[in-house]
Description:
Elements: H1 2-7, H2 12-23, H3 33-46, H4 59-62, H5 64-71, H6 80-84, E1 93-95, E2 99-100, E3 104-108, H7 115-128, E4 141-146, H8 151-165, E5 174-177, E6 186-188, E7 194-196, H9 198-209, E8 214-219, H10 221-224, E9 225-227, H11 235-252, E10 254-260, H12 264-267
Parallel strand pairs: 3-10, 4-5, 4-8, 6-9, 8-10
Antiparallel strand pairs: 1-2, 6-7
Amino acid sequence: VSCEVLNIGLTPQTAWNVIREEWNPSCIPPWDEDELAAKVQNAAEYSQNQIGAWAVPPSADTFAHCVRFSEDKSRGPILFRNLLSRTVAQVEEIIPGLIEKRIPSFLSGPGGTNKSRLLKQWGISINSGAPVFGRPTQPARFVYFSYEDHEDEVARSTQAIAHRLGLPSDSDADYWDLTGRDAPFATVHEDGECRVQSFGQEAIAHLKSVTGHKFVGIDSCYNALRFVGSAKINEGAVMAAIGFLQRICDECDCTILVLWQPSQAGQE
Length: 268
């Protein structure tokens, strides 16, 4: 009962209140309130589903794209002459030629090639609207999730970068020190399911609370995305993981740059 009530999206506290007030009086004998609280707590911590897994939007929202598709009688091949005469907006970029806006990108390279330092340089430059490699940047709030470098190392490197580039020291960029923490955004399974973890929920809520566009740095991929079993070498699961990052971009109005160190076989 606790699992099913949590599945529809109630918080553990609300679930306990509902079970205690609505369900428990019909039990013979009624459960002790402490026992009920323990059941709800266990369900919240060990259930195979995330809280709210069965909560769904109204059917009208879910199937809105199907309605639009059925009402659009012009679906089918499109003539290139129509495309060639169409007025379209330019692709938006955070850093011209390097980082496209509102999509996840990956910065890949072997260890020791200063990927983290480059990410921090780009991030604090973008946050202050400073150019990168002489290219004008589109300002965005930098939010840095670091599983690799602890606070002292980030302080040393960013101070050196800011001093060298003449960047302001009163930056309002955000830094999350995740070194030593088991705090993935999501676990990625072989069937392509991405299960958002508790820290992922916390991080997404924070990104949504920050106004304006965000430039999000994740250091690094396999800390933030926990691939289960052989999901890491399963093309469908990898595509699902990238799709998960794209959803964060869409829902939180952000651009994501993920650091990734390829395997030895990948480097070869």
